[in-house]
Give the backbone structure.
Amino acid sequence: MTRILVTRSAPDAERTAEKLAALGHDSCLAPVTRIVPTGDPAPETPYDALIVTSAHAAEALTVLDRQKPVFAVGERTAEVVRAEGFAQITVADGDAVSLSRLIRANLPPGFALLHVTARHHKEEPAASLRAAGFTVLQWEAYEAQAVEALPEAAAEALRTGQIGAALHYSRRSADLVVRLVREAGLASSLQAFPHLCLSADVAVPLTAVGVGVRVADDPSEDALLGLLDSLR
């Protein structure tokens, strides 16, 4: 049985642990971020449709107009949107590029889009949508707040060589893992196992420190977990 380091925030990490257990793997859950609301109010500017790129937007959705159409980045996010009572939901393939393409194929330029997003967010899909003539309002409703130190469970597992692989879901969390492991005096331990990444972008902080990475064929958890087969 391989023990997998999972550093995404709860409860996402717990769901991943259940999937890993079903595949015959043990988990070391050590979130390097916690999801918290920013307290920023929703924009009062009118908008025609919503963009939702994470299930972490659930709490923010409670104050928004459920009659507006929603474009969700993937099925997991769409499930959360449905649970909040939205009915007009169009689902992309799990990444910002497919989300932007989907919106451009379904809406005319000139529409105003409200993107419910995190404090630390990427340029896409907003950049390409603005270039295509859309107005994109960004509401930074939540943030992945960094923990102060590497969780002790992870530090002990790294120190004693218990980790067989690590899963990385975002560039921010991967960057935090590198920093927190270095601050714990365990930087060399990251060289001892492969780092499985959701995308090439996620892998950037890891390749920068020279550790071995493998990138999923597409940005989905199923594809990411499929990389575990190569460890057998």
Remarks:
- DSSP finds nine helices and eleven strands in the chain.
- The first strand starts at residue 3 and ends at 6.
- The radius of gyration is 19 Å.
